[in-house]
Amino acid sequence: MAGRNFLFVPGPTNVPDRVLRAMVVAMEDHRSPIFPELARACLNGLKPVFKTTTASPIIFPSSGTGCWEAALTNCLNPGDKVLTARFGQFSHLWVDMCERLGFEVELLETPWGEGAPVERYLASLSADKQHKIKAVLVCQNETATGVTSDVAAVRQAMDSVKHPALLFVDSVSALASIDFRMDDWGVDVCVSGSQKGLMLPAGLGVTCVSVKALEAAKTATSRRCYFDYADMVQANASGYFPYTPSLPMLCGLREALAMLAEEGLENVFHRHAYLARGVRAAVLDGWKLKLCATAPKWYSDTVSAVMVPEGINGNEVIARAFKRYNLALGAGLSKVAGKLFRIGHLGDLNELMLLGALSGAELAMLDVGVKIEPGSGVAAAQNYWRSHSPALPKGAAAKVGRPA
Q1: Is the domain of 234 the same as that of 293?
Q2: Cα 356 to chain center, whole Å?
């Protein structure tokens, strides 16, 4: 098909041209005397993204799922109890992994479309007088439903009852797009990946581990090998890796981190919030449709899950968009399969790119019988963006994405 494929799934995201160029490199010896320059540029460059001065970024050749497993097996003992909530496909998959690895799960079932139920976390932690809960798990951004949770509030709940559990956070579709604060929020392990806000192909599991978690890993008895924190930290200290790393991916990561630093992380957050509000204007004001996120406090600045009307199959919208208009939209997963389609709006993008996605989604919806006014979503997004500034006011701090 002529023209460029419009990639608007919530990961993998568009890879900037300068990152692609940075990845076109000849292979080099990953044991050479100069390799640590690249490794340290990546590891040190990740610290500001995680907003930490004390924790250790670790890069695994994997996806975010590998970092999930690393968090569990490095820091916990077989049979340990974890507390978590399930409110979407990815929080579900983390629960599934916990159970398959032999951990006891205290599960807070939550309606899909809502985020982490902080009061229920607090109730469980308050009731745990013997501190049997060893880790609290939270998905900061549930990619399947377009919902963002309040990680800081979960930490406050833990602190209010002086609970010593570790805090593990999945920030796969939030990191480098939505504000994340490792140190301020007392996060012990943050889990992410290369293919979303970091603007790279899939292939790197990017995680960050607190001093407390590294100490726990020294005595934890769950089996691990490839994902052993100790091996990584020891090798990284001298600028190397315990096994063969992906040189092109590390070169791309170095360039992506440079781009984030040039724009300024607070500006990156503001841009994502500004663009997301335009998309929500298209969905809510233009198309008169609903989001899967049930209230504004849950709205995600990286992905909007658009509910299709009764009698319409969301998968037909997605198929039509792809086959006819060369537009890739995200599918509904598990409980919401066929009920929605997802527009990813994170990473390297601007208003005109998103207008192409919104226009293509309109065309596809019209083709399969969704009763919307042609051009309505595009117009609503344009009106929002024309009346708001894409730039963060000088000296101002970005706000975590909420409606204007």
Answers
A1: no
A2: 23
